[in-house]
Amino acid sequence: IDDKVVSASSVAVCQELCHLHERCLFFSWLPEIRQCALKSSAAGRRHIFGALSGARYCEACVEESTDFKGNDLKTFTEVSAVACQARCQAEETCHFFTLNRTNKLCILKSSDIGRTPSAGATSGPRIC
Asked: The pTM is what?
């Protein structure tokens, strides 16, 4: 694959396109131009302002039934952990997130201190 660029309407669609390509291991989505770069390696990783990147199976790094209590930065409504993680990636001060799956509340966090078991919550890092 090595940087195959395709059109994608969202970061979730970009990740799904990565799932569909056998050699894709990582992806980067550029929201301003709605382009998705599919990558077979993390080599050449660099910071591009506004880009949302992740692993093919990004959900593997999240913690189900876990809340990171406190250290809240901002709150949004999101439908998935992938979308909530993308919000976190877009915020420079965000390092972790918690998604309440019941009410779709995505809470961006500055820290994972306060890790607490919580049914219906999914938490994870800014980048897997």
From this structure: 0.59
The amino acid that residue 20 corresponds to is L
Six token digits for residue 8: 């994608």
Q: How do residues 70-109 score in pLDDT, each as one tens digit?
A: 999 999 999 888 789 889 988 999 999 999 989 999 999 9
**114: CB partners within 8 A, 6+ apart:** 67, 68, 69, 70, 71
User: What is the model's pLDDT at position 58?
Assistant: 56
Contact 3, 38 (CB under 8 A): yes
Residues 28/39, Cβ–Cβ less than 8 Å: yes
Beta strands across the sheet bearing 63-68: 63-68, 115-125, 96-100, 105-109, 72-77
The C-alpha atoms of residue 67 and residue 27 are separated, in whole angstroms, by 26
Cα distance between residue 59 and residue 51, in whole Å:
18
Neighbouring CB atoms inside 10 A of 96's CB total: 23
